[in-house]
């Protein structure tokens, strides 16, 4: 990669951007652009998110940004991918982390938290923009399907649900749709007390209705 | 109002805009602008909705439109109001319209339909835009509260629920949040089969869990 490691006159090795291999620098810059896109979506929404705003926020030159992502479309489709990965990482809690007592309620808390987060609010911006934007639509649908499958599998694993029994499969799906509805409400106002009360009742309902 | 009704030479009375009193003409023009704003939100979303697009779509001169609604903000805040009224009108079905057999499932069909409609998709555009737009935020929060109260009262009436009993109140709230989550999913892809299956299971759950 021809990166110089010539010592300075005082014997130290200069710590400059040039010391990071090109491939790694590109990867980091793309990562900064993705992070900045998500932050921008959270703070100023789809309309306010422009390639100029994102490159400034990421501290990346306009030229470099346009080289990697020539349009807002390219930038945002890449960000959808990145965002889906971030959301999947948030699913990482395992059944072992849940208490024995109040297990269902604790699982619901985790599931709801995935939809009451800046990452969900950024996804919501893309989701709604995708409704009327064909190029974005395809990317968002593909990735939401992937996220939906993972979220479903995650809940099954958290509560050790046998989804071949009774209405279990539908109750899991309903839980995820409920969580999405609660997330949409939370994007507008802080309604955490209302949400907690609904999740209490929902946990009790699931405990009675899920077939083991 | 000094509107001419002079007959034409052939004896007919000319049917022109001038025959409609000024107050009524203004009301109709505002109505056309509101309808056009909602249609524009449904078809091209918040970003694509501009005052120019709306005045063209409504067939209203740019000058007249700007006279009534000087900015996109003014136009959209008025449209939120109009939209809330339209959504409330959709709540007009009464318990008497529901069948005795499968009453809960039929009520859920009506409730879900309120969130899988162009009017909800337009509201969704405003909802998400309001998250990052202060002036719009206040209007949307106020009107969503009103719509939320009405939707709640509507479900209580449809299923003759005593909300002082058990977890009934929370189950009603959960149903509306579930319906919102299903509506959000439907905004992206047609998932009516999945939705029907969830509502089947949910109707059965409500029949078992609601206390009478």
UniProtKB/TrEMBL annotation, chains A, B:
Source species, domain of life: Bacteria
SUPFAM superfamilies: Homeodomain-like (SSF46689)
Pfam families reported for this sequence: TetR_N
Keyword DNA-binding: yes
Residue ranges annotated for the HTH tetR-type domain, each copy included: 27-87
InterPro entries, per the entry: Homeodomain-like_sf, HTH-type_TetR-like_transc_reg, HTH_TetR
Record's keyword terms, sorted: DNA-binding
DNA-binding region, residues: 50-69
Classification via PANTHER family: HTH-TYPE TRANSCRIPTIONAL REGULATOR PKSA (PTHR30055:SF226), HTH-TYPE TRANSCRIPTIONAL REGULATOR RUTR (PTHR30055)
Annotated protein name in UniProt: TetR family transcriptional regulator
Organism of provenance: Aeromicrobium alkaliterrae
């Amino acid at each position: 990669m021809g990166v110089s490691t010539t010592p300075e006159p005082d014997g130290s090795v200069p710590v400059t951007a040039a010391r990071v291999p090109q491939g790694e620098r590109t990867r980091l810059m793309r990562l900064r652009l993705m992070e900045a896109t998500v932050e921008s979506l959270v703070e100023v929404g789809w309309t306010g998110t422009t390639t100029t705003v994102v490159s400034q926020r990421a501290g990346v030159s306009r030229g470099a940004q346009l080289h990697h992502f020539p349009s807002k479309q390219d930038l945002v489709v890449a960000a959808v991918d990145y965002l889906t990965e971030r959301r999947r990482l948030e699913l990482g809690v395992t059944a072992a982390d849940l208490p024995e007592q109040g297990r269902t309620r604790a699982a619901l808390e985790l599931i709801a938290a995935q939809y009451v987060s800046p990452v969900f609010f950024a996804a919501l911006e893309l989701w709604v923009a995708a409704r009327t934007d064909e190029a974005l639509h395809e990317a968002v649908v593909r990735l939401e399907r992937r996220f939906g499958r993972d979220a479903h599998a995650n809940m099954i694993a958290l509560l050790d649900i046998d989804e071949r029994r009774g209405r279990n499969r539908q109750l899991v799906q309903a839980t995820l749709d409920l969580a999405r509805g609660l997330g949409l409400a939370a994007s507008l106002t802080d309604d955490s007390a209302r949400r907690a009360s609904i999740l209490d009742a929902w946990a009790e309902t699931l405990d009675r209705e899920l077939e083991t």
